[in-house]
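Researcher: I'd like a candidate sequence for this fold, 197 residues long. If you have to choose between options at a position, lean toward the conservative one.
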């Protein structure tokens, strides 16, 4: 009986966040933490989401590893730096997940097809397993339609932060965002309003 009751308890709600162009300024293939800071308005939005009880999880494609521009130790340092930035903003970073792969990458170990490079949903599904998250109660916020597709494929509601990152606009049902905003604060307001916070 106890096991059945535990299985019926829903997982935690989360907001999955793309990194470059969504919560920080997009500097291509950057792993220098001195150049990584929260974009304008992001701190306020993160605080709002944290206070509403969302787990905050960064999910990011980092093909610079496969290209040989930086290594996984650099990515670990970036994750620690992001955690510090979230803390300074009055929020908590629940997890930082990145995909180091690229099929035609220069580093053989990472030059593979994978299930974690967005628009594949693998990063979110892994985070959900490891942190007890319920994707159907969660959101994905990103600046390109590949982020939207990954979120939809994971079962999340989605918000496109239209900050100029998307330049193809190839729309399909899976790449159609539930909402479109031009700043991160509006994304946070939509999420908390629709979930009754």
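Model: Candidate sequence:
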């Amino acid at each position: 009986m106890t096991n059945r009751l535990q299985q019926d308890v829903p997982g935690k709600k989360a907001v999955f966040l793309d990194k470059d162009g969504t919560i920080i300024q997009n500097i291509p293939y950057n792993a220098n933490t001195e150049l990584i800071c929260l974009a304008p308005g992001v701190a306020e939005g993160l605080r709002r989401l944290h206070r509403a009880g969302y787990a905050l999880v960064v999910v990011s494609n980092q093909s610079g590893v496969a290209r040989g521009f930086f290594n996984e130790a650099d990515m670990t340092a970036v994750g620690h730096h992001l955690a510090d930035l979230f803390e300074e903003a009055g929020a908590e970073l629940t997890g930082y997940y990145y995909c180091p792969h690229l099929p035609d990458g220069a580093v053989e170990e990472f030059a593979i097809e994978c299930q974690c490079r967005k628009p594949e949903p693998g990063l979110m599904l892994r985070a959900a397993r490891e942190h007890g998250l319920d994707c159907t109660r969660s959101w994905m916020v990103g600046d390109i339609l590949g982020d939207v597709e990954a979120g939809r494929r994971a079962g999340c509601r989605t918000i496109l932060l239209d900050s100029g990152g998307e330049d193809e606009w190839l729309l399909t049902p899976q790449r159609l965002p539930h909402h479109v905003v031009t700043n991160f604060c509006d994304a946070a307001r939509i999420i908390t309003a629709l979930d009754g916070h």
